[in-house]
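job 3f2a | input accepted
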Amino acid sequence: MGGKVLILGASGNFGGAAARAFTKAGWEVTTWARGTDMRAAAPGTGLIVNALNPANYHAWATLIPEITASVLAAARASGAPVLVPGNVYVFGTDPGPWGAQTPHRPVARKGVIRAEMEARYRDAAERGQKVVILRAGDFVAAGNPGTILNMVMLKGVAKGRVTALGAPGVRRAYAELGDLGRAAVALAGQIEALPAFNDIGFEGMTFSAADLAAEAARQLRRPVKVKAFAWWALRLASPVWELGRELGEMRYLYETPHSIDGADFARLVPGFAGMDLAQVVAAHLAARGLTAG
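job 3f2a | predicted structure (293 res):
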């Protein structure tokens, strides 16, 4: 299966993973250059992947609606379906697993912005635009310095520490980026048979900081302790550090146990095999040059 796919935000986390996965699967991949006319890049494409996301949560309230409007205009100009990576911000603190039937009850400003974004895509689908939201938890990727796993949780693993941003036993949803890119390709191959609007959960992995530390300890064959993240230091830095200020708003997610309902994805893509926690830890340790003690 192949075709032409336009990837918006190909230099970012999900965009880069999607570009690699679609290329490997034989698709003709084109990318959009920021500052150019998105509609001019869209004609002839069979799918638009909207992986655009302002870095460090910058100006979400302004930029997310602008991006959404531009993507939908490009989709109308080309007649192409749109695939968008969804996150868990829209669900608030309701018990999981979270999926297509879970009400959107955001409890943070960024959750409200994302819920409004998804509502615009849903409205567009009611007018005939085909949309796939591929929902996943926090991104993980060995060697990618921009993930929370690398920036915070595994930053001190060489010294025998894993950092927990919430209670150590809180289990949360994660998605390995290579797996998520392959999932996007698998859904794209079925795009014609899908309904106008699709909210499809990618289960990925669910683990806690304690689970992460235990697996790292097993592979390193030495103790790895769990340390609490210093949120107070982040608050002190927030006036001059945009990412720190914005991360503080999402603290509740590190105290909220959650997982993604992947039943719809499993039905559409039976037998899909993704990485498990042991494989993810091994890859991250190897990327840091760490081996068993």
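job 3f2a | The first helix runs from residue 13 to 24.
job 3f2a | closed
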